[in-house]
Amino acid sequence: MAVIKRVLSAFALSLLVSVALAPAAVAAGPVREKLIIPTPGTIDGICDFTVVYTIAVNNEYNKNFYDASGKLVRTLTEGRLVVTFTNATKPLSSLTLNVSGPAQTVYNADGSQTITFLGNSAIFLADQIMLSSGRVVVIAPDALSVGVVVLAAGTRHNLCTMLA
Asked: Does the predicted model carry a pTM greater than 0.90?
């Protein structure tokens, strides 16, 4: 959970920087910025073991959309992202996956977020890392909380089970 909170904190900080640029965004349309993912990294607290990840390809970008008052209302994440996930206790147990999405995050008035994953995605939940191909909708109470799946269509696999 601590790693998820760090990742979510970094994402939230990136969004705060985007909000600071909002007046320019209103006049010029959406703001496009490179998605920065620190690598290598570890994911603890979801699987029964530590998952090590490395980024093989990262050509992903966020497009941030603002309302007339400069408030961030939506982010579209798209581009190519290929990640290698490895079971830290079994270094030969690894998978390299295209998790390019795309995904869309809508920032709701109550502070919650509705995240819609399309295509191939890695979705970090409280009890699994879901690999999906299709449409998955997750609602998170805020930027630093793990979300809940409210709709899932297509194929889904648990990365923890696959790497065990």
From this structure: no
Q: Which domain holds residue 94?
A: 2-163
What's the domain count of the chain? 1
Residue 123 CA to its chain's centroid (Å): 7
Long-range Cβ contact pairs of 87-95 (< 8 A, separation 24 or more): 87/47, 87/49, 87/50, 87/51, 87/163, 87/164, 88/42, 88/49, 88/50, 88/51, 88/52, 89/49, 89/50, 90/49, 90/163, 93/163, 93/164, 94/163, 95/159, 95/162, 95/163
Question: ∠ CA 67-33-66 to the nearest 5 degrees?
Answer: 0
Flag the least confident range among 3-17, 72-86, 130-144, 150-164.
3-17
